[in-house]
Specification:
The protein contains one helix and nine strands. An eight-stranded antiparallel beta barrel has the order 1-3-4-5-6-7-8-9. It has one helix at 2-22, and strands spanning 42-57, 67-68, 71-85, 88-113, 116-141, 146-169, 172-196, 201-217, 225-241. Helices cover 9% and strands 69% of the residues. It starts with a helix and ends with a strand. The protein has 242 residues and is mostly beta strands.
Length: 242
């Protein structure tokens, strides 16, 4: 009985060894390679668009033109470079946007002079036409494809002030218009988030606040006035990373 049991065990052991020998060897080639985590490092270019709200006012105690709030759309381009170390991302970005942010104020009056109707109207319009920045960025990679960051640096923007007026009396109408444009310079601060849709395509949303300082309009004339300009921008965009 013991001999029979020993023979059976030996037979099973030999059969198992033979079956195992027939199985394909599990080599490193059969094990799936780990997927590399996305990296934010590299150059990128992109487009953006959004909405802006600004403030134009006299920095004097008694303002000449009061306060205006130009608002409207803004569209632009950006380019930059990121360098990632572990979860931390440092970078530099430059952008330029075309803006259509405007506000205006108008008055009109009429009366009768020597039996004839007299009417007059005046309008003052402010319009921010561009915004550009050169900014440093510092971010943190949350889960390999989501980046949050803060940003700040140099900002500049173009602004146009237009005054127009007209008067009409006894069938004669007189109208005139004058404009003056200035480029403001200052600083910008902001924050945003980026999401890697693919290895190369990245979507972004950010907010920027730009203080563009003061400039004198119509300098050297009796209507010269100094105006300060600030802008708040909310925009979304997409980048292509090389």
């Amino acid at each position: 009985m013991k001999k029979t049991l020993l023979v059976s065990c030996a037979t099973i052991a030999l059969a198992s060894s033979a079956f195992a020998a027939d199985l394909p060897a599990r080599t490193a080639a059969n094990v799936p390679a780990p997927i590399a985590a996305p990296t934010w490092s590299g150059f990128y270019v992109g487009v953006n668009g959004g909405y802006g709200l600004g403030t134009v006012k006299d920095p004097y105690v008694t303002p000449v033109i009061g306060e205006f709030n130009p608002k409207g759309t803004i569209f632009g381009l950006q380019a930059g470079y990121n360098h990632q170390v572990d979860k931390y991302v440092l970078g530099l970005e430059a952008d330029y946007a075309w803006a259509s942010m405007s506000d205006s104020f108008g008055i009109a009056a009429s009366t009768v002079i020597n039996g004839s109707a007299f009417s007059a109207a005046a309008k003052l319009e402010t319009k921010q036409t561009s915004l550009g920045t050169i900014r440093a960025r510092a971010g943190y990679d949350i889960n390999n494809n989501l980046l949050v960051y803060i940003t700040g640096g140099y900002a500049y923007g173009s602004h146009k002030l237009t005054a127009s007026g007209s008067a009409s009396w006894q069938g004669v109408r007189v109208a005139d218009q004058a404009s003056n444009s200035q480029t403001h310079v200052g600083w910008v601060l902001g924050a945003g988030t980026e999401y890697a849709l693919t290895k190369n395509v990245i979507a972004k949303v950010e907010y920027l606040y730009a203080n563009l300082g003061s400039k004198t309009y119509w300098g050297g004339t009796v209507v010269a006035d100094k105006l300060s300009l600030t802008s708040g921008i909310v925009r979304a965009g997409v980048n292509y990373k090389f």
